[in-house]
Structure formats: structure tokens, C-alpha cells
Amino acid sequence: MTMLHLNAFLMGVGHHEAAWRLPESDPFAQTDVAHFTRLARIAERGKLDSLFLADSPVLWNSIGRRPGGTLEPTVLLTALAGATRHIGLIATASTTYNEPFNLARRFASLDHVSGGRAGWNIVTTAGEQAARNFNLDELPAHRDRYERAAEFVEVSLKLWDSWDDAAPLGDKDAGRWGDDDLLYPTEHVGRYFRVAGPLNVPRSPQGYPLLVQAGSSEDGKELAARYAEAVFTAQQTLAEAQAFYRDLKERAARAGRDPDTIKILPGIVPAIGATEAEARALEDELDRLIKPEYARQQLATTLRVAPEDLDLDKELPADLPAEDEIEGAKSRYTLIVTLARRERLTVRQLIGRLGGGRGHRTFAGTPEQVADAIEEWYRSGAADGFNIMPPVLPSGLEAFVDHVVPILQRRGLFRTEYTGATLRDHYGLPRPTNQFTRQLAATAR
Fold first, then answer.
1. For 305-329, what is the mean pLDDT?
2. Euclidean distance between CA atoms 272 and 396, whole angstroms
3. Is 250 helix (H, G, I), strand (E, B) or coil?
4. Which segment of 35-49, 325-339, 353-367 scores lowest on mean pLDDT?
5. Residue 1: pLDDT above 60?
6. How far apart are CA 425 and CA 431, in angstroms?
7. Distance CA 139, CA 126 (A)
8. Cα separation of 269 and 19, whole Å?
């Protein structure tokens, strides 16, 4: 029987925007390596497949609203690699504001340092503020960002494969460290990149890091179908999740891939209590701590309207921009508007829902109820696993690991021990064959 895949999405002191205001929270933990080390060890104690750090090359929000500033994720994960032994380590990095050679080198290095536990969450980065940090006056068009992303990944794959596994020899007697004939120059010339190669890092333990993608727009789903091995997504209902799951698996098959090699993990924000009332009390307490003036400003930016157009005690305006007018974060825009329209939420109510998970599914209940919710989506063809997004950290992650994971294990849905050494092993994926070796073998035949 296949097993659930569980990823811990770590964000500061929790995914709820008001988590930092709780008495238990350290409001400066987002730059504390010891805090993340503790979280990584908790997740590893629960035998989770991986942990994940989001990132963007821009200050995310008003620092008046919630703790601002984050450590660069591949640097932080390098530290966490030394503090853990098994759990996978996934970092977000943008294809719009990086170059393939530097980024491929960083991830190959992380894979070596961690013994084969690295993963790359491929994003194209929405928002004009990021563009202005990189010599641009405006955000590149949505389609251009995704075309650049596809070429970026292709170049990265060539760079990771530019060393044959057998290239390093270490032959002391012959005085020959490596075989130059087993280096494969990249020699890539494309629309966006010219890269000679080879990479200056030998092929890593996994061949290349696990490739993760998180966009749900049409362009995002096409990119995922071609390259992604895990997909982080956001759906509010079982029917929406089933439709996304079915669509992406079919796209992967049309791209010539085995659909089982792409793992789909919706986000869930579980508020866990010994009783349902206790869980809902935690959720209510967090929602009361939201400052609506900050949240309304952020929502207005997302919806491309003026803050004064959003009356806190009324529903969203009827004349919002159409999705095809949105250049950044199309899928999240659609998710937010659909949620608000479907449930007829006021702006204040919508702010509360988004404050917990930014559009991901929020769920308050006992450990048994959380396990039931996870099992239902898994068995109903809506998910291969879940992106666990605790509203409060570390307590929310501890509650999930200590009380929900054992239930899933007793039901035979989740591992009781790690059985592999690499992140690909955890996700049941093979180590990829070097593309240049395949080409040489085909030519020899």
C-alpha cells in the first residue's frame, strides 16, 4: 500500500498572522537558527517526509503587521542539514530573479551537504516590488515568467547532469583525480539564457534535488506537469481538490510522464485541541488578535483595489478585476475571490479566513478529526499527502507530530520509521538517470 506524504511548512512562529502575539511566542524567532532546529527535529521525530521554507526576494508585508524578514532558505537548510539525519529539506527559489548556474550550484551543494535530502520549490515570483529589487521597472508578464522558468529548469537539469557519476576517480596510484571525458559541457543557448557549463560541483547524491512547484494557474499547472515531482497547492473543498488532482495527473500523462511520479500535497492549517471546543477556542483567539487595518491593506493589494473600497462589514465589491487582468499570483487571486463569493463572506470574515492560512484549508478539531480529514481527502483521490501548516509554532507542530501522526500510523497510512536515505526515497521516486549518459548509450546502439 502506498503511504501518505507529509511535509512540514515552517513559517516563523506559525502560519496564522497573529501567532506572534500569543504569550508563548517569540516575536523574533524568524531569524533564530535554534528555533528552526527545534522545529526540524520535531518534524523528524514524526518521521515526516520533508520540511519546507517559503521565500521571496522582497519584504513580504508591512513589518507593523507581523514579524518581517527571513533568512535565505538554502543557507538556513544547510544549518538544519547538520542538525538532522533523515528529513528532506526543501527551499523556495525564484527563476525570475536568479541565474541557473548559481542556483544549480547552491542546490547541488545542499544535496551534498545533506547526504541527498535537498528539494527545490520552483517559483516565478509575483509582485512588482520584487521586480524593482532587480533592475526592473515592472513585473515581467505572467507568460514570460513561466517560459523563462521552463528554460531555467532545463538549463539546471543539464548542469546537474554535466558530471557523470563516474567522473570522480580519486586514483592516487595513477595520479588521476577525475576523467575529463566524463564531463558534459552544457552549451545551452536559448531565449533567456546562455550557459556553457559544466557545473563546478560533482553530480549530487540524488542526481538532482526533488523538484517542487506551487503555482495553480494554467501556466503553473503546465510547468508542474512537465517537471514537478511534488506540488504544493491550495484548495478549500474536496471537490476542488479532486478536480485539481485529476487535472494535474492527466497533464503529467500527456507530457509522457507516469502520473504516480508527481505527488500532490494540498495545504492544511490544523488548529488542534484535546476537544473540538478547545481547538475552536484557539482559532477564535488567533482571529481576535488580527489587526484588520493591516490585513485590509494586504487584501486590497492582492485584489488590485483601493483599501477604502473594501468595507469590513460588507462583501467584496462586485466589480473586481478579471483573472486575465492579473499578472501576478493568478491562482491565489482566483481562490480568494471564489472563497469569498461562494460563502458570501464579509471582508472582515474573509480576513479572518485568510489570516489563518492565506487561502489554504483551515481546520479546527481534535487529533482524531484532523486525521479523519486527512484520510478522507487521501482516499478520495484529492491528495497524495499534505503540506502541514501549523497556525502556531512550535506548539502546533508538536501537537500534530505527537497526536495526529500516531493515529495515521495506526491506520496504516503513514510510516513508522524512515526506510530510505534520500528525499527521493521518502517520496518513492527513483534517482534520475543522467541525460547525457542516456544520449551516449542511445548513440552507441
1. 74
2. 7
3. helix
4. 325-339
5. no
6. 8
7. 7
8. 13
